[in-house]
Amino acid sequence: MSAREAILAKARRALTDVPDVEPVLDVPVVRPAPDRDHTREEIVDLFDERVADYRAVVERATVLTAADAVAGALAGRAPQAGLGPLRILVPPGFPEALVPGDVEVVHDGPDVSVSELDRCDGVLSTAAIGIAETGTIILDHGEGQGRRAATLVPDLHVCVIRTDQVVPGVAEAVAALDPARPHTWISGPSATSDIELDRVEGVHGPRTLHVLIVEA
């Protein structure tokens, strides 16, 4: 008798006193449908609330105040080197007008190594979509969003998302995404827990996520 046959024989013996039960088929699973009867303002407010629930920093801005808000998100952070300006990674396509003038800009590209990314104090990016129900930000790594490593290695991620990019739920987000593109779904800063449930941040990605919601 093979090992497989021995295992199956033990399973059959264990089930000898279990009565046969006809499978129940075609029983619909009833799940509450998400409420889509919200105004645009309510959807964005929910997104703001859910993102903050993940211990991310959330800030509102307008087109006119967005540059100051980005500068404020970087203010007060000490550079890794201890001296000189912050080294901030900027992916191709990120709006130049939002990049503070008092930082050392590292233009991301395939020639920028992971060790170089690790030397950056933070990264700026835009986003593709925000999901209000889950507080999730989705990057499809298009213009202004950078490659996946760019938003995972630096300790700070400042993400700029417009209000018209926020959708109510996951279904709308999936419908709007291009399945041929890579996607990174971000729900708060990187966090994990050890066996004693002690929370540790920054192990698998940025320790700080600062989300700037810009009124479109």
TrEMBL record:
| InterPro entries to which the protein is assigned, alphabetical | FTHF_cligase-like_sf, LUD_dom, NagB/RpiA_transferase-like
Per its UniProt record, what Pfam families does this chain match?
LUD_dom
Q: Where is the LUD domain?
A: 116-214
- The protein in question is named L-lactate dehydrogenase complex protein LldG
